[in-house]
Design a protein that fits this description.
Blueprint: H1 3-38, H2 45-67, E1 73-83, E2 86-92, E3 96-97, E4 103-107, H3 114-118, E5 127-136, E6 139-147, H4 165-173, H5 189-195, E7 202-207, H6 213-227, H7 229-235, E8 237-241, H8 244-250, H9 253-256, E9 262-266, H10 282-289, H11 292-303, E10 312-316, E11 319-323, H12 325-337, H13 342-367, H14 374-386, H15 388-397, H16 403-412, H17 414-420, H18 426-432, H19 445-455, H20 466-487, H21 495-505, H22 511-517, E12 525-528, H23 536-545, E13 551-555, H24 569-577, E14 581-586, E15 588-589, H25 594-606, E16 615-616, E17 625-628, H26 635-650, E18 656-660, H27 665-676, E19 680-682, H28 683-686, E20 691-695, E21 704-710, H29 712-717, H30 722-730, E22 733-741
The structure holds adenosine-5'-triphosphate (ATP).
Length: 742
Amino acid sequence: MGVLESELERERAVVAGLYQRLDELRSETEERLARVRRDSVGSNHQARSERDAFARLYEDQLTQLRDVDARLVFGRLLLDEPVDGCDHRYIGRVGLRDDDQRSLLVDWRAQQAGAFYQATASEPMGVRARRHLTMSGRQVTRIDDEVFDESLLDGGSAGEQVQGEGALLAALTAQRTGRMHDIVATIQAEQDRIIRSDLRGALVVQGGPGTGKTAVALHRAAYLLYANRQRLSTSGVLVVGPSTAFLRYIEAVLPSLGETGVVLSTLGELFPGVEATAEDAPEAAILKGSAQMARLLSRAVKSRQKAPADEQTIVVDNERLVVAPDLIQRAIAKAQRTGKPHNVARVTFVKHALAELTDQLAAQLRASGSTIDDADLKVLREDLRTSYDVRVLLNTAWLPLTPQKLLQDLYARPAWLAELAPRWTEQQRDALHRDRTEPFTVSDVPLLDEAAELLGDFPGRPDPADRERDRQRKRDLENARAAIRNMGVQGLVSAEQLADGFAEQADRGTTAERAAADRSWTYGHVVVDEAQELSPMQWRVLVRRCPMKSFTIVGDIAQVASASGATSWQDALNPIFKDAWRLEELTVNYRTPAQITREAERIASSAGLPITPTRAVREGDWPIRRVTAERGDAALAAAVAGAVAHDRGIDDGGTLAVITTASDLPEVAAAVEERFGDAAGRGATGLSRPIAVLTGYEAKGLEFDAVVLADPDALAAESPRGAASLYVAMTRPTQRLTLVAR
Ligand SMILES: Nc1ncnc2c1ncn2[C@@H]1O[C@H](COP(=O)(O)OP(=O)(O)OP(=O)(O)O)[C@@H](O)[C@H]1O
């Protein structure tokens, strides 16, 4: 047996031992679960709730132990100095210990695992060699070594461009499934530094296409949850992506890393109760995204606090009362001075108006000979409060409002908009004009949120959550601590986890569920992907969700496709974060072969896009294929279908995207669907099929084994940001690109 085979055998034995430990833990947890379920707990509500919370916790632990089964272990470090008598350390998805609490497997996020990602020949970090283990099921199929200690080398080289080249290339050339996978086994040093960067402040990760920005952002979320468990498990992490299709693409990554306490949301879902998917026309989107909308909404709310122009006559208790506009104006001024949101300050307005009206009515009654004592004053005030006329008077001056109503009014009443924005052009005002019944768009969501902030809670619908939620959480935590002591399971579960179980029990949901449903929830950290697309108004919403401004912001300025997106990180971020943000760049392209990357970057540069050039890790096996459609109707669609068939002839096992302009999409999709039937689908539907037909915008952030691009010139000319769309489209393939010219 050669050295390598015997090493492989040795690793197989070690790994088998680790799986054995995993199985033991699983059966212990299963037993615990069976025991809690079996135990009679009497009829006491508290005891039942505790039992159910423990049961849920053990179920979660079991799911987690099952989720880490695939590629449980993927690395080994050979150490300079033995630790606890052991000169090596295994790295995996979770940490495992034996019964004596000795470490068997180190969680990839633990500090002791750092060298697995960071050590280099010039800075070996106390490591002599690093080994990548490639697994198939529970079996080690291959080992790749990088040796940092020259004395261990027999003639080989210690320097390598990328870490764990074999394992990395295997991962990069693997067929794509339409779902993003974790990269935990092959995270590269420049990525690892970003993943482990401090929780505080805003970190911007800029990088060209395929440099792993999305992957890094998700692994950073998992890392932060691990390293700041106490703080983040109760507040949660919010991950924001551009579309539902994108979220579906990435949703499996965090659970595979053992994390479930994360809320995934599109920008259209950030306002609870509204699920916007429709996009505005570019002009409206730019306007609605601009910061001036915040001022406009503030003026709109103020303009709904207005005294009547003339005296108003009302009748209360058969007494005619002439109310001067000044009286209402004084109450408005008092309420405005509180600085509180509209619906909350209205209470002050009503109180002052009623007080003055009561005095006026009392004076009038006295003048006509009645005697009014304090008790009578109270009755008068109550009569006024419940009088129909008074209600109309006060509501006309200061009506309680919902964000939805405010926005619908603003769009549906051009005259009011003209009053509020006298300097806008007619074209701008027209861009906002809309019928009340039309659904809200993605760009409306930040405006609804801004309005909610200015308006406060709608009366009669006070936020049920806030204070009661905090109190209940405190009670749950105390109970959980007591239960952990009683059960003697200190160290196995945390009070926070168990308290989450109580919360689910009482139908209050997990941290993630409660956070997603609550507009006033503040997260411990926010991850924003494709952040270059965000408008100033969208940034305002996100900062409201995390006032501590702890952010991971990933994107590529050259890929901005939305009309209201950013033109530089400075312009986008300085108004929000001042200069409290730091920039990291990623430069290695892991997705797209060099042959394709070069051409995409050449076209993008000549169109003047501010690209970040990338270094592709592999040259690729297929040069770009160019096809020209014949002349005549439907020729483009036919040529595209032909190009797809050609590509499927090379490999029909992977995923393929046809990317086209929105205007060509119906015809192209029809031709592809006719030829490939159920194997093809449009938009989000296509993403779960081998062939997806997408617009440039829909393809953002995704990747496919092969891409067929229909009429690249039309894609570039489609919108003012068309060049970026073409750049995005050309950088989606992991293997092959076909350009079909018209
Ligand atoms: N260290 C790594 N090991 C293995 N695969 C990696 C690594 N880094 C990135 N990848 C893979 O490269 C591909 C591109 O990554 P990702 O989608 O995160 O890039 P991106 O920078 O967000 O791209 P874009 O800007 O084009 O959306 C993915 O398939 C990802 O899994």
